[in-house]
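User: Can you fold this complex?
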Amino acid sequence: MTSYLQDKQLTIALSGEIDHHSARETMETIGGKIDTYLPALCILDFRDVTFMDSSGIAIVINAVRRMREIGGKIRLQNIPAQPYKVLEAAGMAKLIEIPERSGT
Amino acid sequence: MKYENQIQVTFPSKSVNEGLARSIVAAFAAQLDPTLDELGDIKTAVSEAVTNCIVHAYPNEIGIITLKAKITGDGVLDLTIRDKGRGIADIDQAKTPLFTTGGAERSGMGFTIMESFMNELRVTSQPGKGTTVHMKRKIVKRGERP
Ligand SMILES: Nc1ncnc2c1ncn2[C@@H]1O[C@H](COP(=O)(O)OP(=O)(O)OP(=O)(O)O)[C@@H](O)[C@H]1O
Ligand SMILES: [Mg+2]
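Assistant: Here's the predicted assembly.
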């Protein structure tokens, strides 16, 4: 999982298939990066996510909670069609601003 | 029951098999010529049902999961995912959005997602005996797509 920090803005690029099999590691990595860099804004980039199920919902919710705890904000970007549909079906739009869906 | 094609796979409740189950169903469903969108919906629903067996049905042990896929007349994909695990005492409660017994690693949205991505979802369960999830999805024929 690659990430970069610029002006207190942490961008984390998620990739591959996000399911229960891979979720714990992803959740811990994101949490660790937030705790290390204490960003004002955390951006989760979904461009290279090829599949996501409800395990990804828990990952996003945990990241949202962590950013709230440190008084920061979170944003999701470049969400492909399949993860987008899962986020929508899980009602995530109520919790977090979800951008327009990008191409498949 | 009348069917045009059918497969059955059994595998142990190891998380590495989540991706395998999705791929098997996707490959089987390919003969209905689904769109990428339809395939995404089907893979998501399978992933939810299989993950539930691994996480909830067999929390402290490795058990057997049976996955059946059928193609019935008029292009319907009919899926059954069965475990012989812990079972669900109150199915209506389990289906309620956000209800989970899985802690912070789960969101309680699995059944809600299965319900919204498939045309039909039926859950039967017996505490201590196991759970069966039955789902159907109609694949629209090429010529009949909007
Ligand atoms: N196969 C099963 N065996 C036993 N209990 C189950 C099974 N499937 C679901 N459950 C119960 O139903 C609840 C709701 O399931 P659902 O998939 O909707 O949410 P979740 O698995 O808890 O979270 P998520 O799917 O969002 O990660 C589970 O928390 C669990 O208590
Ligand atoms: Mg679930």
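Residues A 54; B 48, 51-52, 110 surround magnesium ion (ligand 2) (CB under 6 Å). The mean pLDDT of chain B is 95.
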